[in-house]
Amino acid sequence: MLQVYLVRHGETEWNALHRIQGQSDSALTAKGERQAQQVAERAKSLGINHVISSDLGRTRHTAKIIAARCGCKMKIDARLRELDMGILENRDISTLSKEEEEWRQQLVNGKKDSRIPGGESMIEMAARMYAALTSCLVLPKDSTPLLVSHSMALSCLISTVLGLPAFAERRLRLRNCSISRICYQKSPWLAPGWVVETAGDVSHLVDTPMLD
């Protein structure tokens, strides 16, 4: 049975300012760095020996801290990127027009094929995230990989594993540096393949993360 751990990056400056990031980037705050150190300690206790990160700066910074603590190399996989939020990236949520907020809400509320102008659909993101997860199946025996990604990307992946459509309503909160665990198994009492074991665990964090 292969266990794969999923970690959201540490708090960023734009998280703290409620600014839309998407595939744009923002540095970790001091709190975000502390969160990364705390999740790194947890990762070491879990025996993580592969750290694979989105290519965006906030995930690379988080993953570098985790990999250093676990004594393994960090690899980059651009398929783990956050949802492309198009023309809304780098915008404060409070400044969105009524129409812009409706675009954003469609992603949250489960409208099929919704996307921000210039951006990406949840279905497109789900396909690349699932492909990145599937790549873990070719890792050497006794591997325990950890993927460092983003809030919408990881929640969409977990929903997909649960059998929900990629565009399903967002009902899963994954806070900064939370840990989730999924497994590839062949239990007689579960559908074969990937299953979700835990999601959004923050018990290792001293600094209480923001809600979103």
TrEMBL record:
Gene Ontology MF: a single term: phosphatase activity
InterPro entries assigned to the protein according to its UniProt record, in alphabetical order: His_Pase_superF_clade-1 (IPR013078), His_PPase_superfam (IPR029033), PG/BPGM_mutase_AS (IPR001345), PGM_Phosphatase (IPR050275)
Active site: H9, E82
Keyword Mitochondrion: no
UniProt: substrate binding residues: R8, H9, G10, E11, T12, E13, W14, N15, R58
Keyword terms: Glycolysis, Hydrolase, Isomerase
Entry GO terms, CC: cytoplasm
Enzyme Commission number(s) of this protein: 3.1.3.3
PROSITE patterns: PG_MUTASE (PS00175)
NCBIfam families in the cross-refs: PRK03482.1
Protein name: Phosphoserine phosphatase 1
Gene that this sequence comes from: pspA
